[in-house]
Amino acid sequence: MASRAVTIGFRDTGRYLLLSLFALAVLVPFASIVTSSFNPPFSLIKGLQAPDPFTFESYINVWTTASFGRLLLTSLTVAAGVVPLAAVVSILAGFAIAHLQVFAGKFLLGLFVFGLVLPAELTIIPLYFNMRSVGLTDTMLGVILAETAAFVPFGVYWMHASFAGFPRELIEAARVDGASNFTILFRILLPLSRPSIVTMCVLFFMWSWNQFLLILILISSPANRTAPAALGFFVLAHTRDVAGLCAATILVILPILIVYLIFQRSFISGMLQGAVKA
Amino acid sequence: MTTSLTPRAATVPRRGARPGTGRRLSRRLLALVFVLPALALYAAFVLVPAGQTFYLSFFSWDGITQAIPVGFENYLEVVTNPLLLRSITNAMVLIVYFAVIPIAAGLLIVALAGRRQIRGMGFFRAIIFLPQVLPMVAIGIIWRWMYEPDGLVNQALQGAGLAELTRAWLGDPDWALIAVGLVGTWALTGLCMTLFFAGMYKIDTELYDAVSLDGGGRYRQFLSVTLPGLSREIRVALTLTIIAALASFDLVYVTTNGSPANLTVVPGLLVYRLAFNSGQIGAASALAVVLMALVLLVLLLAGRLGSKARD
Q1: Chain A stretch 144-203, residues whose beta carbon is closer than 8 A to a beta carbon of chain B
Q2: Class of domain A74-277
Q3: What does the pLDDT read at residue A10?
Q4: Same domain, yes or no, for B124 and B243?
Q5: Is residue B207 part of a domain?
């Protein structure tokens, strides 16, 4: 008995060691940018060393002169447009395909699922010319519409899977009791699907926040860029200001990091389930 | 989906007073109204442009003057132009670092860690999964700094007494592509691990007991229970990581932007450059179509591999 307990204890130590090693491998690069970011702008620094002198100067610098404060606000505005719009149209379409016998529903679902694997490169060239011809390039509306359209395949697929998971008898019983389709959707399905909807919205927010290629192509004036896109330009222009670059990077990942810490379970389960089901 | 038609018909007569067909018709009309916004957005900003790219790939067009139909010339260009061809072979090399190594590492860790739940697993999982939620642009910049001459990679090598190995990793012709690939390894190993851990807890414990009753050790348990039990997760991991390898535009754009000497170009980068910098929209479109064909091919192969592993 005693020896068995000892071996289990040892094995657990090994497990912790292994996982700690991996966690460390993930965290060390972050440690490097955090320590670097607290150095003065343009200072010569090494990968990992205590900031000398410790200062917020680089943060203040990128917040004001590189106007990352405003860029972050633009990112938030785009996300605030994309998340509700994509969620509403996905919920409606998912509900229609799952429970309203929409015409050619199976084909439609397949069409949306097809969109899950289309690389962005396949659409961006005509997208740019089409947007330009209707005056949507360099506008926030254009970005919001393009991002929503890119996320809708996942949303419809996800909401359909969620709604179709409820027993058909539940819907039928409600219909027999005289519930309208609106009642079924808003009073029965939506409250029951809250976790799926939260997960979907969190993923939409992340994808919108992290979007780079679409912004690069659709937005031409620096003032209209989102924060990650601006970061992509900043890195090419400020290669020598390591401290500033690190500070800007931290400012850009901080919001998504906070959302991740709050909705961690939604993130992980959503990204894994979404992938496994598809 | 499959059972949607039959039970509905049975309920209609119960409503007695109302004409059943009219109600079903209004439901179908409502369904159409509900599907339309999603479908319209998807069609206007994804499906139609995808079709246009396909169409444009048969033209020579600079975006301004009249487009000239050129047949399959652009596709010929993709497979004969050394630069375009290199972007495709580079994408294949990246698959090794984005898909093969993370999946192998993920399986190894899962095998070593075993299936017993340990305390604090949620904490470790949150950290290990972290790279999945961050913008690839930020990850690229973090690693750009790691790989700088003064960066942490060289600092660590010096600390380990391997100073002669230090170099500007992203500027070195022999190492740049590998360095970019290893960023993918760093970013995606956590995804594979998390997927495999989640899958392993679903495997029936009795299967492991059966193997140990037969005298099989941990190695046999892994080969005959864990690996087949994870076939679905392995297929998913393959799909996700390979798509990530083929869609590596963001990462390459901020780390090397194709340098040194265009050795690290990837298809996405050339699609962008050809279309928006050098006005070769036909060739860019053809490359985009080839990229999509590659993605579909890979999905097909991954699906095959997964279903074979299950048998």
Answers
A1: 145-146, 148-150, 152-153, 155-156, 164, 168, 172, 175-176, 181
A2: mainly alpha
A3: 54
A4: yes
A5: yes
Tokens 């947007």 locate to A131
Q: What amino acid is encoded at B272 in this protein?
A: Y
Q: Provide, as residue numbers in chain B, all residues whose Cβ is less than 8 Å from the Cβ of A166.
A: none
User: Token pair of B27, please?
Assistant: 């439901």
For A195-212, the DSSP string reads: HHHHHHHHHHHHHHHH--
What is the gyration radius of the CA atoms in chain A, in angstroms? 24
Asked whether residue B103 falls in the same domain as residue B222, the answer is yes
Domain that residue B176 falls in: 75-310
Instruction: Examine the pLDDT at B20 and tell me if it is beyond 60.
Output: no
Global pTM value: 0.90
Rounded to whole angstroms, the Cα distance separating B283 from B76 reads 9
- What residues contact A251, with CB distance under 8 A and at least 6 apart? A59, A62, A63, A68, A72, A227
> Cα dist. B35→A101, A114, B41 in Å?
11, 16, 10
Number of helices followed by number of strands (H, E) in chain A: 14, 0
Cβ–Cβ below 8 Å for B35 and A108: yes
Cβ within 8 Å, pair A103-B126 = no
Burial readout B135-173 (b: 16 or more C-beta within 10 A, e: otherwise):
bbbbbbbbbbbbbbebbbbbbeeeeeeeeeebbbbbeee
* Strands annotated E in chain B: 59-60, 68-69
Query: Looking at this protein, which amino acid is placed at residue A235?
Result: V
The first and second tokens of residue B284, run together, are: 């860019």
**How does residue A102 score in pLDDT terms, banded at 50, 70 and 90?**
confident
How many domains in chain B? Answer: 2
Torsions phi, psi of B60, nearest 5? -105, 120
Using CA atoms, how far apart are residues B284 and B270, in angstroms rounded to an integer? 7
Which of the 8 DSSP states describes residue A40? P
| Among A12, A122, A235, beta carbon nearest to B144 | A235
The complex scores an ipTM of 0.90
| Res. B11: pLDDT tops 50 | no
Structure tokens at B225: 């229970």
Question: Does B168 lie in the same domain as B46?
Answer: no
Which chain A residue is nearest to residue B239, measuring alpha carbons? A275
Q: Tens digit of pLDDT for each residue in B170-202?
A: 999 999 999 999 999 999 999 999 999 888 888
Q: Which pLDDT value is given to residue A276? A: 66
Percent of chain B whose predicted confidence (pLDDT) is above 70 = 90
